[in-house]
Design brief:
Shape: globular
Order of helices and strands: HHHHHHH
Strand content: under 5%
Number of helices: 7
Largest sheet: none
């Protein structure tokens, strides 16, 4: 009887964690919808201009763009550039791009959590996208500046753990 009750508590806790993740995700995009249109700055605009240029050229790199301190290869333009073929509104492109980038970030974390065999993965995912500070909101969630890099690290660590588990 006790194990049945414990399983039910665990199942209810898991459902609550997924609901919390869905609520945080919904709140994030509700906030982004108003914030992005009022706070687009030169960094975000530059990312969008690069994505539009790459879309027009049909390439992932260009010789017509002067990169400042880094060469953009595995970055946000891989998501934003194709969206210029689908939408005309920069706001729609930015919202859709943010949505896909946050989903990639969450998928990478959930993959890592699965490899770590961690309980409460949805809770960790919700905490990852909770804007605990303005800088976190601006840099990671609105600007998506380091989301590809963070996702690559999560996927790489998850893959490494997966490989280590298969070692004899």
């Amino acid at each position: 009887m006790r194990s049945f009750l414990q399983k039910e508590k665990d199942r209810i806790a898991a459902v609550c964690e997924w609901l919390f993740l869905a609520a945080v995700l919904g709140r994030l995009f509700w906030r982004l919808n108003t914030w992005l249109s009022l706070n687009l700055d030169s960094d975000m605009s530059g990312e969008m201009i690069l994505a539009r240029l790459l879309n027009r050229e049909g390439r992932i790199l260009t010789d017509r763009w002067y990169y400042s301190t880094e060469l953009r290869v595995l970055n946000t333009q891989l998501i934003f550039a194709p969206l210029f073929s689908l939408f005309q509104s920069w706001h729609t492109i930015q919202m859709t791009g943010c949505f896909f980038l946050v989903l990639i970030l969450l998928a990478s974390l959930l993959y890592l959590m699965r490899q770590l065999e961690t309980e409460h993965a949805p809770l960790f995912a919700a905490l990852l996208i909770c804007p605990f500070s303005y800088v976190h909101f601006y840099v990671c969630l609105a600007g998506n500046y380091y989301v590809p890099h963070i996702a690559i690290v999560f996927f790489t660590l998850g893959g490494l753990i997966c490989l280590l588990k298969k070692e004899p």
